[in-house]
TrEMBL record, chain A:
A GO term, aspect molecular function: NADH dehydrogenase (ubiquinone) activity
Organism: Tessaracoccus lapidicaptus
PANTHER family noted in UniProt: NADH DEHYDROGENASE [UBIQUINONE] IRON-SULFUR PROTEIN 3, MITOCHONDRIAL, NADH DEHYDROGENASE UBIQUINONE IRON-SULFUR PROTEIN 3
Any GO CC annotation of this UniProt entry: plasma membrane
Free-text function comment from the UniProt entry: NDH-1 shuttles electrons from NADH, via FMN and iron-sulfur (Fe-S) centers, to quinones in the respiratory chain. The immediate electron acceptor for the enzyme in this species is believed to be a menaquinone. Couples the redox reaction to proton translocation (for every two electrons transferred, four hydrogen ions are translocated across the cytoplasmic membrane), and thus conserves the redox energy in a proton gradient.
Keywords noted in UniProt: Cell membrane, Membrane, NAD, Quinone, Translocase, Transport
UniProt lineage: Bacteria, Bacillati, Actinomycetota, Actinomycetes, Propionibacteriales
The encoding gene: nuoC
Catalytic activity: a quinone + NADH + 5 H(+)(in) = a quinol + NAD(+) + 4 H(+)(out)
Subcellular location: Cell membrane
Assembly and oligomerization: NDH-1 is composed of 14 different subunits. Subunits NuoB, C, D, E, F, and G constitute the peripheral sector of the complex.
Protein name from the UniProt record: NADH-quinone oxidoreductase subunit C
Keyword check for Membrane: yes
Family: Belongs to the complex I 30 kDa subunit family.
Length: 231, 184, 449
């Protein structure tokens, strides 16, 4: 959405060194599938996720980022985003175990718990379709940070951080179950929510919602993923 | 197997039917099949305000072998469906099933890969209760309607005849999809 | 040494099957026999506490490997209530997402709604524009729901160990709270009441007096639980030293809420990372120092009192802010319906219909667009966490700029806490498994989503 941009994010189409690629284009009033007879085809929206931000971001994020860069110099090239009052560090997957260990053990970072691991699937972002988002919480310093790791669909391997944060055991299993991200080093990466012999990874964008059309006395209401979309 | 199968149809059987029906409905114990939100309303149905003990139902039997009624309350996921069927198979005859709530009756608002679109896909249901979740008052109403059904259930040779009649009627009944026009 | 073991069963009959080893339990100490049997390393049996079980708090499957009465290993199996809520929400508008989200943790539905709406409001950037009265009502219904959820936890926990009266009285109190929530939102459970931008409608005319009745009722009846349970020797015997998780273990396994506060650490998100104006309310964080199930129970009971304190403060503030709006001002976000009882028993208020049909075309357009298409949320992602009665409830929302969520993921506290079942139960007795799980209070709807 080009009209509401937080100041610290670079616009998608500007001459910025690195911004997130546009992942969807919405044209006119009817944009997905159904024909546009409205005459409003001139309306175009380019959708791109916020890209990167340059500091300073204000406390406490600056001290987190500063200390992280001190302790893990390899993160200097990592993309950092500050949006909606939250700091996101895009960690390359090779560095994940080291980063997690340092974030937990270093006294000035001390992110004791990883509260949530969720997967997000961006099928348009070829080369890094599967994102795994780790939310860390520090009891000592009362602050949060987000680490985001990406991997391509053809090679969906991400190192597991169970050795550092034992509480992500179930979360990583769920991300494997729902998105197909294989966590290397996880003690028992099996299906947790779906039946054990289920095929496919349901929360990926190319997996159908799977509903049935509702029929009653001659009328048929299609399942939610087959209906016309007006936005 | 029991005495009721040996009795010939007639006045004696009708009287025995009445007695059996009354006995069954007065001591009608549900098996615990509380799945989701409807289970909380089912628990509220057993607690003092909507007291199910007034008609002998406050004992929710944990073991299906001791239960006559299964109240499927809550959304039935693909993983849970075989379990429910197994519990149903373990219940001795005569048994009844109430499908409580929109999710158990038809999949409810969850029209997706994970939810079976109605427990009647794998169970014979005697009473459907709409609602999300249905109030305990609605469950009481459904229970009373079901008790009427229980009271009038035929036994012995009458039951076999009734089952055959129902099957014959179902074979000639038009499918709901073909009853076009009125939505009601 | 082995005074008990023999190979000849002097009591067996002629046609009994020949046993490999026979233990004669006559005179002497049972623990001798048990330790001898343990030394021998007899086979353990695998027991399935299946998804259908009266005491597992929902459709939770536990696979136990038992050596006699001792649990050697235990593994929870979940997913029996997986509903695909998160994926289903990607096909519905943001406001419709509230009705989906509310059915995750169905014992405390307003918390799910609140965390989701707070996350969406952060994405929209309207967190500071939420009217004060809306925040007060949110706090009020959340705290009432906290009391209701703790009552269910105490009631079902009591029922699972055999104290059935606790369940009947707990549900009686809960009915009072549900009456008030029904008068407010129209539904006893799974109210889709907290919406992005505020709440769906204001209190009804008799809302404040009804709230006063509820407060007085709870004040009168909450002491009953303390009388029943706190000093009850059976209760203490069953709950003390069961499910022990000290602070190290709790931090390692990411516990939050009553299980974390039972270790003595006073981490409460309402205090440390406040939302909805919680920093302006006076209440204490309840902790206990025994790391066991008894501590968690006492915390839940005391938290009911703290929530009641907050509810009373909300009562005063609601009196002060009467007449103020309960939805954000922005007509492009605010849910347009002014729900009130019409002559046919349902529907919009006549003033609202008159306004959109007769007076303002823009209002009609906004009503139409917001209800059918929904509002658009700017691109980005947000993680919002609140303190639900079970622990830290988090919502990770990703928006692609459209009228539908791109990805919603809920971090349910029960999902996390179930990981600690092996740590709590292995080595203990099977009856302690039930108590330990009840003390964690998982709600399988939230666990499986």
């Amino acid at each position: 959405m080009s009209e509401t941009q937080p100041e610290q994010n670079l616009p998608a189409e500007a001459a910025a060194p690195e911004s997130q690629p546009v992942f969807a284009r919405r044209a006119g009033m009817w944009s997905s599938g159904a024909g546009d007879t409205s005459g409003y085809g001139g309306l175009r929206r380019d959708l791109a996720m916020p890209g990167r931000s340059e500091g300073p971001f204000g406390e406490p994020h600056d001290s987190v980022l500063g200390r992280a860069l001190e302790v893990i110099p390899a993160l200097r090239d990592a993309r950092v985003l500050f949006d909606r009052d939250e700091l996101t560090i895009y960690v390359p997957r090779e560095q994940l175990t080291d980063v997690a260990r340092q974030f937990r053990d270093d006294a000035f970072l001390r992110f004791e718990v990883c509260v949530s691991v969720s997967g997000v699937h961006y099928p348009q972002e070829t080369g890094s379709e599967l994102h795994v988002v780790y939310h860390l919480l520090s009891y000592t310093h009362n602050r949060r940070v987000r680490l985001e790791v990406t991997c391509p669909e053809e090679d969906p391997h991400v190192p597991s951080v169970v050795a550092t944060y034992p509480m992500v055991d179930y979360h990583e299993r769920e991300t494997w179950d729902m998105f197909g991200v294989i966590f290397d080093g996880h003690p028992s990466l099996t299906r947790i929510l779906m039946p054990d012999d289920w095929k496919g990874h349901p929360q990926r964008k190319d997996y159908p919602l799977g509903g049935v059309d509702v029929e009653y006395k001659g009328a048929k209401v299609p399942a939610p993923d087959n209906r016309r979309s007006y936005s | 197997m029991g005495i009721e199968d040996k009795l010939p149809s007639g006045i004696l059987l009708t009287t025995v039917e009445g007695v059996f029906g009354w006995l069954r409905k007065a001591s009608f114990w549900p098996a615990t099949m509380g799945l989701a939100c409807c289970a909380i309303e089912m628990m509220a149905y057993g607690t003092p305000r909507y007291d199910a003990g007034r008609w002998g139902q406050e004992v929710f039997r944990a073991s299906p072998r001791q239960a006559d009624l299964m109240i499927v309350s809550g959304r039935v996921s693909q993983k849970m469906a075989p379990v429910i069927r197994q519990v149903y198979d373990q219940m001795p005859n005569p048994k009844w099933v109430i499908s409580m709530g929109a999710c158990a009756s038809s999949g409810g608002m969850f029209n997706n890969y994970a939810i079976v679109q109605g427990c009647d896909h794998f169970l014979p249901v005697d009473m459907y209760i709409p609602g999300c979740p249905p109030r305990p008052d609605m469950l009481i109403d459904a229970m009373f309607k079901l008790r009427e059904k229980v009271q009038h259930r035929p036994i012995g040779p009458n039951e076999t005849a009734a089952i055959e009649d129902a099957e014959r009627a179902a074979l000639v009944a038009p499918a709901k999809v073909e009853m076009k026009g009125l939505m009601r | 040494m082995s005074t008990h073991a023999a190979t000849e069963d002097v009591f067996s009959g002629a046609d009994d099957v020949h046993a490999d080893r026979v233990y004669l339990a006559q005179g002497g100490d049972w623990s001798d026999i048990a330790s001898e049997q343990a030394e021998r390393g007899d086979e353990t049996i695998v027991v399935n506490m299946g998804p259908q079980h009266p005491s597992t708090h929902g459709v939770l499957r536990l696979i136990l490997e038992m050596d006699g009465e001792t649990v050697e290993s235990i593994r929870p199996g979940i997913g029996f209530l997986h509903t695909g809520i998160e994926k289903n929400m990607e096909y519905k508008t943001w406001t419709q997402g509230v009705t989906y989200v509310t059915r995750m943790d169905y014992v405390a539905p307003l918390f799910n709604e609140a965390v989701y709406c707070l996350a969406v409001e952060r994405l929209l950037g309207v967190t500071d524009d939420i009217p004060e009265r809306a925040s007060i009502i949110r706090v009020l219904v959340m705290e009432l729901n906290r009391i209701a959820s703790h009552l269910v936890a105490m009631g079902t926990g009591g029922m699972e160990i055999g104290a059935l009266t606790v369940m009947t009285v707990a549900f009686r109190e809960r009915e009072m709270i549900l009456d008030f929530l029904e008068g407010l939102s129209g539904l006893r459970m799974n109210h889709a009441y907290i919406r992005p931008g505020g709440v769906a409608n204001d209190l009804p005319e008799d809302g404040l007096s009804h709230l006063r009745t509820v407060i007085d009722w709870l004040k009168k009846h909450l002491p009953e639980y303390a009388t029943f349970c706190n000093e009850n020797p059976i209760f203490i015997g069953r709950l003390s030293k069961v499910g022990v998780m000290d602070l190290t273990a709790a931090t390692m396994l990411g516990m939050s809420g009553p299980p974390l506060r039972a270790t003595g650490y006073d981490w409460d998100l309402r205090r440390t990372q406040p939302y909805c104006g919680y920093e302006t309310y006076e209440f204490d964080t309840v902790t206990w120092d025994t790391n066991d199930a008894y501590g968690r129970f006492r915390i839940r009971l005391d938290e009911c009192w703290e929530s009641l304190k907050i509810v009373e403060q909300c009562y005063d503030r609601l009196q002060r802010t009467q007449g103020q709006p309960v939805m954000v001002d922005d007509p492009k976000i605010a849910w347009p319906a002014q729900l009130s009882l019409g002559p046919d028993g349902q529907g919009n208020s006549n003033e609202h219909i008159k306004h959109i049909m007769g007076e303002s075309m823009e209002a009609l357009i906004h009503h139409f667009k917001i209800v059918t298409e929904g509002f658009k949320v700017p691109v980005g992602q947000v993680y919002q966490a609140i303190e639900s009665p079970k622990g830290e409830l988090g919502c990770h929302v990703v928006s692609d700029g459209g009228t539908r969520p791109y990805r919603v993921h809920f971090r349910d506290p029960g999902f996390n806490h179930l990981q600690s079942i092996p740590a709590m139960c292995e080595g203990g007795m099977m009856s302690d498994v039930v108590v330990a799980i009840a003390s964690l209070d998982p709600v399988l709807g939230g666990v499986d989503r």
